[in-house]
Amino acid sequence: MHARTSWLRLVFLFSTLLISTTAFAQGSIGGLVKDSTGAVLPGVTVEAASPVLIEKVRTTISDSSGRYQIVDLRPGAYTITFTLPGFNTVKRDGVTVAGSGNAVVDGELRVGALEETVTVTGEAPVVDTQSITQQRVLNSEMVDALPSARNYFGLARMIPGTLGGGNDVGGSLIQDVGQSVIVHGSRNVDQRVTVNGVSTMTLQAGGNIGGQTPDVGSASEVTVDTNSLSADLPTGGVRINFVPKDGGNRFSNSTFVTFANESLQGDNFSDELRAAGLGTPNKLVNAFDINESLGGPFKQNKVWFWFSARYNTTENEAPVFANKFAYDPVNFYRYEPDTASPGVNKGTQVNSSIRVTWQVSPRNKIAGTYKADKWCNCPNNISATVSPEAGRDRRFPRLMQEHAEWTSPINNHVLLEAVGLHLFERWGNMHYRVNDGSLDDPAIEDVLPQMYAILEQSNGLNYGILSNYNNTAVPSYSYRAAMSYVTGSHALKFGFNRTHGYLDENQYTLNPVAYRFNNGVPNQITERATFHVRTNLDNDLGFYVQDKWTVNRWTVQGALRFDYFSTSVPEQHLGPEAITPTRDITFPAQDIISWKDLTYRSGFAYDVFGNGKTALKVAFNKYLLGQTLNGLGRDPNPIVALPTSVTRTWTDANRDYVPQCDLVNPLANGECAQISNPAFGTAVPAEVFDKDLISGFNHRQANWEFSTSVQQELLPGTALDIGYYRRAWAHFRVTDNLLVGPEDYTRFDIVAPANPNLPGGGGYTIHGFYDVVPGKFGQVRNLNALSDDYGNQFENWNGVDVTVNSRLKNGVTLQAGLSTGKTMEDNCEIVAKLPEMNFFPPLAPAVTTLPPSWRAAEWCHRESPFLTQFKAYGVYVVPKVEVQVAGSFRSLPGQIGPPALPPNNDVNVALNATNAFLATNSTLGRPLAGGAPSVNLLLLEPFSTYLDRRNELDLRFGKVIRFSGQRAVVSVDLYNALNSNARITVNQAYAAYPRPTEILNARLVKFSINYDF
């Protein structure tokens, strides 16, 4: 079995070398060759030589306009040699290639036979007059020097203009999969994390994140693209690329070790926070991280390798106390905090990878990578609103990555590239287990199925057990290739990419019944059915062609991309279980999604004065929303479209906390009302999908990006960049309940309660809430449709960035930037026809306490204020004493929840409006339909309230020690040096608002050692 699997993998790796796939984007060197009179020189042989190239030298010839360009160059220092019979030979040393930009190196040859060597600085130009992609490059030395957690989201969030990255202070958290970064109004699902330009993320979460996190110890540099992205991939947003190390002709090593514990953390738990209701702060208990990397030659100039491994473990106290009645079958319904025992989240992660590069022949190079990871956040998800016993084990027990690359510069102008990639992820948000360390008593594991998930409405606290879990496998295969035709003035590239795989998920629960209380009084039951479901990604296929022309001072770029996205499901069966004893459903195999889209990239760069110091850039691009087997890619699966959970009102008359009713009976009986959807447990779907939404040409959600900027060199090594950016979205998903119409809702207004925490102290009127008429309660058959079929819906972002980038000769590297922008949303035409679109289920319960709620129709047009951020990072080595000083600063507007996921990107308050409240403070004029005891109503206008501004300063002071050709840096890091205690989240349940639920971790001292040879 194992031998057969190994052979299959071997066949896959080598067969992919024969299949076309997308190329990875590397740096290039180009310029103009002239003679001493200024006349252009065609036919000049130009060589780029570097120890980072296993083939040692790449060669091209200048074209008829005297221009040359050498592409696909690894990061590092190069020597450029210009040769033409009858002219002297000119060499330029120390030319630095970084990222995917073009290093401009011009040559001037004089008639004669003498060799001349000209030495120039190793710095790339600070103004790129040819590329319109906005990119920031962090090489391995910069990554090692900056105080950071050494993960992709921690590095990307340093870049001006980006938002997100979570609340990781100094590596207090291991790399989880939920940390996304956005820019200029992009979506979380648009982020792509790539290695050599190949996405290594999962087929879930829109493809923006995954369990296999790149290891910075294996990267020679990390690039972050934020604007005017290439056509290699369909999405816009942030693109984070890790360029791997290949090794070299000499053995080298890099070891990074860092640690901290609770005795090295300060205290920012103020009296103000105590008075606001925060019982205990979130804080670090301990953290340890070791990243070991080494590489060198198996054979000089022929076969190189690079191996990297990382072990990272953390432990953090959560802002919640343990429940004294946890796992108590008698008092399961009670929560009483044990103030001596804060909840604790723990995590351990192990990464390992090896890359081998083989120069098969002068024009054929093969590279292959094998990476195996595993990690477990066990226990996890414990927070101010999740009691420790209600947490989970977030396990990734098996993560695997295998990919092979082939490149062939078949002549001076044509480059062929191919990549094949296999990914496998086994993961799950699973129940606690003794063997993983999240439980220390086997008896507790046995009693878990007897526990109930309980939600206390008044403060949003979850205790008991988690109501649902999953165990999921996600294998995928990708094939990508491209061919480039490059001359000095012209670069044409075309290629294709294809990804396919499947999502196999077991959605299970230990107890199919969950309870909801309000101030300890039961009022609702949730019944949840388990299911096993598989969804296939048949094709995520794209073909593209892109071209770039440089004529005099103009560089014009354009690209077209065609995408085909299709999914399907195999035959599936659902059998009976305790909560649905009569369920026996078989669904035939069927196709689901079938999208075809055409997108483009376009723009130009203009060297304003012809001296390479001033560039004007304009770009207009169309991108597609990141999509894989999540959201709309998965939802039409007929099993997923079933009502898999329902609620019913519960009147616990005798207060015994046991429902005296038959929960299998969908009709009202005993203490229980009718379930919210009578189709529960049957083959009748709750969700159906219009063909315009899930098929057709240009129906996939998309966005248009416009940008214009000016770059100006202020001083040698320092440039200023001022840009305007706009992103506009189209083709939204809307929900139309086919069994009810606008006339089947009662529209009503409310008067907000008097409360000093509300605007103006409360008492204002909010217009346009809805409740279905009693005769239509429980009738649900949602048609998911394209917004274009119902009316106009808008969303756009407009903003300005101002950044300064410096690489000075005195050893200072600095980048600083200010970014400001605002969001506008409008779905007034939609909600006028579909009142149900004003209801929002929780988008991410792990990061917000906002429950399912109605938003007032009067807020169908929403505009945020201009939200401004400032960021800076830099490194300086004090000469002679060799003391390294580095730091980063981020000043961000306070937000709650993931950015760009309305309504969770600002603060809101959900009022649990009871029938008694509505009788005296609303125009409803009747009790809520279905015997519901209450409904959640949002009290704050969207984009009107934000949390504390986050000002984070991180510093590193290190002493460089050199001995016998080796180098070590012993450092002291200071994270959150200002000891800010900014509120990251607050409780959004009205009865507890604005009680803090998470603050910025207190000032933290860490010690680290970086050793290289």
Overview of this structure, please?
There is one protein chain. The relative contact order is 0.11. This protein has a 22-stranded antiparallel β-barrel. The protein has a 5-stranded mixed beta sheet with strand order 3-2-5-6-9, with no helix packed on it. The chain is mostly beta strands and 1013 residues long. The two termini are 42 Å apart. Mean pLDDT is 91; it is low at 1-24, 842-848 and 898-904. It has 2 domains: 2-119, Immunoglobulin-like (Sandwich); 252-739 and 780-906 and 942-1012, TonB-dependent receptor, beta-barrel domain (Maltoporin, Chain A, Beta Barrel).
Q: Any descriptors?
A:
about 1000 residues; mainly beta; Immunoglobulin-like; Maltoporin, Chain A; 2 domains; 22-stranded antiparallel β-barrel; 58 strands
Question: How would the blueprint of this fold be written?
Answer:
Blueprint: H1 2-15, E1 27-35, E2 45-49, E3 57-61, E4 67-73, E5 76-83, E6 89-97, E7 102-104, E8 107-109, E9 115-119, E10 134-139, H2 140-145, H3 152-156, E11 162-164, E12 181-183, E13 192-195, E14 198-199, E15 219-227, E16 239-244, E17 252-261, H4 271-275, E18 283-299, E19 303-323, E20 337-361, E21 364-380, E22 392-409, E23 414-430, H5 442-447, E24 453-456, E25 461-464, E26 469-486, E27 490-508, E28 513-518, E29 521-528, E30 531-551, E31 554-569, E32 572-574, E33 585-587, E34 590-607, E35 614-624, E36 645-649, E37 687-689, H6 691-694, E38 695-697, E39 702-715, E40 718-730, E41 733-737, E42 745-751, E43 765-772, E44 782-786, E45 794-807, E46 813-826, H7 828-833, E47 839-840, E48 853-854, E49 861-863, E50 867-878, E51 883-892, E52 910-914, H8 915-921, E53 934-938, E54 950-963, E55 966-975, E56 983-986, E57 996-999, E58 1004-1012
Parallel strand pairs: 1-7, 1-8, 6-9, 13-16, 24-28, 34-38, 37-44
Antiparallel strand pairs: 1-4, 2-3, 2-5, 5-6, 10-15, 11-12, 13-14, 15-16, 17-18, 17-58, 18-19, 19-20, 20-21, 21-22, 22-23, 23-26, 24-25, 26-27, 27-30, 28-29, 29-36, 30-31, 31-34, 32-33, 34-35, 35-39, 39-40, 40-45, 41-44, 42-43, 45-46, 46-49, 46-50, 47-48, 50-51, 51-54, 52-53, 54-55, 55-58, 56-57
